[in-house]
Fold this protein.
Amino acid sequence: MLLAIDAGNTNVVCALIDGAEIRTRWRIATDPRRTADEYAVWLNQLMQLEGYERRQVKAVIVATVVPRALHNLEVLATKYFGVTPLIAGRAPVEWGIDLDVDEPKSVGADRAVNTIAAHALHAGDLIVIDFGTATTLDVVDYNGAYKGGIIAPGINLSLDALVAAAAKLPRIAIEAPAGESVIGRDTVSQMHIGIYWGYIAMIEGLVARMKAEIGRPVKVIATGGLAVLFDTHTSVFDAIEPDLTIQGLRIMYQRLKPA
């Protein structure tokens, strides 16, 4: 089996993949100080709970946007799984796509991997929206080239900034407001409306502008934990791919395997 690791700014997601099937996935808060030994204890316990053994892992592939976390993940692979990890974007697993932007080296690993997966799973021009620490909207053309995109603050970051800067505002859960009214009658309902409907308005507005600029039919693909939450109140998404980054790592790994 393949162990695919997506190390983001907020969480590290580890998934066991057998062929084309994602068997299971686990997540842990990202901490660049977390050692390989700590990762190993955590992973080993979870694998045992679900009936897997370390010896079943024959390869490890990693994508990360947190450079300080990479070393310990590499040690995890070599010390505890006995394999040399593959690093997305580094030989022999180069992107294999055209990063058609002014600064190709600045494109985050997660965005490049999402591009690979989205193009493999969906035909035509695409907008890929990833609801992570930041919310990113990326354009992928019909040939699979990454054409650029948008970076906006993630909804959790926006809420944290609001609560931190306004002493009397309480911390609230991120959830759809009760009812359809956008006129709140108390502080908490007003915050829910501002965060939730405000975020949907931002996404719908940005997607509309991107589609107009692209000028061809475009399919919108959403990923990230909050995509399902927003999908209940907007029709902007054509498909939701919750494991898009992990799927991209699987595709990159399978490119290396002989036919």
User: Anything to note?
Assistant: The mean pLDDT is 94. The radius of gyration is 20 Å.
